Amino acid sequence: xxxxxKAAAPRVxxxxxxxxxxxxxxxxxxxxxxxxDLAIATNDPCYEHFLAGNGMPTRxxxxxxxxxxxxxxxxxxxxxxxxxLIKSLIQSFGMMKRFKPDVVIGVGDPSSVPLLAVARLxxxxxxxxxxxxxxxxxxxxxxxxxxxRLADKFYVQWPQAVEMYxxxxxxxxxx
Amino acid sequence: MIFVTVGSMRxxxxxxxxxxxxxxxxxGTDVMAQIGNGSYVPRxxxxxxxxxxxxxEMAKYDLxxxxxxxxxxxxxxxxxxxxxxxxxxxxQDDHQSIVLEEMVRLGWCRACWHLEDLAxxxxxxxxxxxxxxxxxxxxxxxxxxxxAVGQTQARQMAARSAGDPGR
Lengths: 175, 167
Description:
- The complex is a heterodimer.
- Helix content of chain A is 32%, strand content 21%.
- Chain A is α/β, with parallel strands linked by helices.
- Chain A is globular and about 40 Å long.
- In chain B, strand 4, helix 3 and strand 5 (83-86) form a beta-alpha-beta unit.
- The longest helix of chain B has 27 residues, at 136-162.
């Protein structure tokens, strides 16, 4: 797209979770075209590693935003889940205001729900990639994103996983 | 040489089992363990809590024993090191077992469903697979992202000029 005769670098915000989600997001970033203006939202507890530039294949500088962990366990009560959700929504709002992404991509992590919801609200394009860890049993994260249609594009990573959600597509894996 | 890894989680039961097998002389003592923040400290094998370059480290070994997490298992498939995966059933929905069942069905690795069977699983010959990474998904995602960018920017510009009739 030409803006004032100069092509504007597309602004993409990618959610990088912890553990397996971290690996999957890393695989996706490894194929990123070089002309992207990238920002990363992360809830990884080892967040400081990012700042030291450890192991993030971001070609060129990327901006970082911090998100609280959304992962709910059986031990955490409803009030904890609700508190984290509200906190993530507020943090996501801040990111949209400051970075103004054209597209937001979530990979597996539960934080994809608040992040993609707010991205939608701001008119950004949204993409969700269900984690490799889900073969034939739907995740709550995937279910909510699918039901509320929070993603313009919804990809799964196992052929049989297309059965789990409406509008899910299988094109292969991130790794 | 065998490498044992717990990745970013902790999996004391796995480390302890491998340590005991090494102590009994069942798997030799040339074993290196990455134990994360586990509280069990091995006595019979070498260990380190974390590695800066875990993938590079794993590539040096003949066999890796790991949990069923997708980060570790798919990295191992990519670098072509045979592995035996032990599902960490304590995690949400026991998703590691489900993924491992599928990986075993596809012939990508061996799984050890119960730690007491680990010695027997390790006696089987290592499974070598020729896994190929296909960049189709990653490339499509970026392509779609870039095409959506044009639409978003056009929409934002339209909104801007609609609110600014003087232009």
